Amino acid sequence: MVQMAGVGRQFVKAAMSAKFLERDEERVLAQNWKNNGDEVALHELASAHMRLVIALAARFRHYGLPLADLIQEGHIGLLEAAARFEPEREVRFSTYATWWIRASIQDYILRNWSIVRGGTSSAQKALFFNLRRLRAKLSQNPAAGGNTSMFATIALAIGVSPADVELMDTRLSGSDVSLNAPITEGDSSGPAERVDFLVDDKPLPDETVGNQIDGDRRSNWLREALKVLSDRELRIVRERRLAEEAATLESLGARLGISKERVRQIENRAMEKLRRALNDIDHPAQARLG
């Protein structure tokens, strides 16, 4: 009998003393629930398999979560198995329900073991729940080598990269740490916190505002300078210099009905007009064109 803090002894005792079901009894109860919605049959079927839920939940108690919560999640998986079970397939309900119970408990652990979500893929989930066991097994082999060789072996066995194994090993080796946890004693204002050592690569607010103002100013100057161009010059400059994907001389010449050499000449003349216009505005952005 599993006896853990936080789990009522009476509940465990009742689960362990529940009646074992024969195959025929199990099939009848499952059929009554599936075909007739008989909740009494569902309750009897679930009660008879709560010892299975407790046994599976106890295997995951070393993840630091309350056993009562693991049992509750396992019970949800048990009810999900009952809803999906097909008694006509001649498979024992306990065999079918084991997968659903374990999956429900594992999903709960992944959601609550750390505030950092991990194990989102099936391979990552397998890595999370098998890394410690595989590492302990390999550690007993003198020929296993160091961490690098061990991580490579585990990665090959589970189907992930060695970098994923190393990252998961680091996560499993320590618990979550608050960014507001003090590190060392600072000045009189108080102890330094971990968040104080995080580097933000974004520009400072004054730099952001300054860049935005400069950008708006350059855009206004360019709009004013473009007014000196003719319609054909403006079209060529926009498609050759201002578009995300510049048009080729050949394609632009074909659309305008002129040769690519003529397009090049008009473009050069238009750029020179823009330089003079920007020079009249007296702004160094003229150097950016060319």
Total number of helices? 13
State the name of the first-level CATH class of the largest domain.
Mainly Alpha
User: Could you list the spans in which at least 5 consecutive residues all have pLDDT below 50?
Assistant: 285-290
Oligomer: single chain
Q: Tell me the count of domains.
A: 3
Topology as a string of helices (H) and strands (E): HHHHHHHHHHHHH
Q: Can you describe what's shown?
A:
This protein is mainly α. It has three domains: about 100 residues, Four Helix Bundle (Hemerythrin (Met), subunit A) (Up-down Bundle), CATH 1.20.120.1810; about 50 residues, no CATH class; about 80 residues, Orthogonal Bundle (Arc Repressor Mutant, subunit A). Helices cover about 65% and strands about 0% of the residues. Helix 4 packs across helix 5, helix 5 crosses helix 6 and helix 7 packs across helix 9. The protein is elongated, with a radius of gyration of 35 Å. The C terminus is likely disordered.
